[in-house]
Amino acid sequence: LPASMYMEIQREQPDGGNILTHPDYIDGNPDLIKPKKLLNPVKASKSHQELHRELLMNHKRGLGVESKPELQRVLEHRRRDLLIKQKKEEEEAKKLQSPFEKELLKRHQRLDQLEKEQEKQEDHAPEFIKVKENLRRTSTVTGDEKAA
Fold first, then answer.
1. What is the pLDDT of residues 61-120, one digit of tens each?
2. For the residues of 43-68, what is the DSSP string, one character each?
3. C-alpha 21, offset from chain centre
C-alpha cells in the first residue's frame, strides 16, 4: 500500500517531485522586471581588481604568493639574526655576572641615587650660597695657576 501512495504523489506533481519552484520571469512576460545580480562591493573596488590582476600575473610567471624579492628576504634575515644575537649577548651578560659584579652594580646605583638627592638639595639652596661656592672654586683655580 505505501508504494501505491508514492505513485499517486508522483502523478500529482508533474515536475518529478522537485520542491524548488521555477521563477516566474522565465515565461518571457515583457511586463515583468527581470532581477539583476547584485555587485559585490569588494570585487568592484579598484584595489581588489589591481591585487587580483597582480596575483594572476604572478601565477602566470610561476611566482608563489609567499615569494618576496631577494633583497627584502636578505634584509629580514639579517634583522632577525641581529635580534637573536643581541638577545643571546644580553642573556650571557646576565649569566656571567658574578656576585662581586652584582654588588658593584648595586653600590653604583646607590651612589647615583645619593648624587641625585644632593643635586636636588643644592637646587633648593639659596642663591648666595651657590655663588659663594662658585667663587671659592674660581679663586682656588686662579691661585693654583698663579703658583704654577
1. 877 666 777 788 889 999 999 999 999 998 888 777 788 888 888 999 999 999 998 888
2. HHSHHHHHHHHHHHHHHHHT--TT--
3. 51
Neighbour count for residue 145 (Cβ, 10 Å): 8
Torsion of CA 79, 84, 90, 93, to 10 degrees: -120
Contacts of 43 (CB under 8 A, 6+ apart): 49
CA distance 32 to 34: 6
Cα–Cα dist 13/68, whole Å: 60
| Greatest extent of the chain over all pairs of C-alpha atoms, in Å | 136
Give the whole-angstrom CA distance, residue 114 versus residue 120: 10
Rounded CA separation 72/26 (Å): 56
Mean pLDDT of the chain: 78
Spatial contact of 86 and 80, defined as CB atoms under 8 Å apart: no
Per-residue confidence (pLDDT) for residue 41, from 0 to 100: 85
**Quick one: which of 94, 90, 91 has its CA closest to 102?**
94
Question: Do 34 and 42 contact (CB within 8 A), yes or no?
Answer: no
